Amino acid sequence: MEQLYEVGNTEIVVKLDAGMGDLQVPVVHVLRQATTKEIKEYSRMSSKTEVRRGKVRFEGNALDAAEKLWNRTATRVEGYSNHGQPLMEQENWKELVPILHKETAVREAFGEVYARGDGDDGDDDREGERET
Predict the structure, then answer these.
(1) Pick from 27, 39, 93, 129: most CB atoms within 10 A?
(2) pLDDT tens digits for 75-100?
(3) Model pTM greater than 0.85?
(4) Strands annotated E in 1-132
C-alpha cells in the first residue's frame, strides 16, 4: 500500500531540552497545525522588505512573530512548573513559557517556513540595507 501524507493530522509534538545551568530538563510543546492565514501572517511579520531610492531594506521581528504564532497554536506543554505547580494547572500558562522556548518550538514545528522568512523566494532574512 502506498504511503500518504495525512492532512488531518493537526497535532505537532516538539521535544526540547531546556537548560537549567548544567542540568537539561526535557520539555514538550504540543502545537496544532497552523492555518494558511496564520503562516502567511507569521511570514509577513518575520520579514519585511522595503525598496526606497534604489536601496532594499530588510526588517522584521522574527521573535515577536514566533511568539504570536506559538500563542495561537500551542495547545499544551509538558515538563514546566511555576512555584512547584505544573504549568498546565495555571490559567496563564502560555504567558509563563519563556519566549526563547516558544521561538525554538515554532522553528522546529514550522521549520521550512521559519527558515524561508517571507515564504516567497527563499532568500535569507537579514536586517540592514544593500544597494540594488
Answers:
(1) 27
(2) 999 999 999 999 999 999 999 999 99
(3) no
(4) 11-20, 23-32, 48-52, 55-59, 74-78, 81-82, 85-86, 128-131
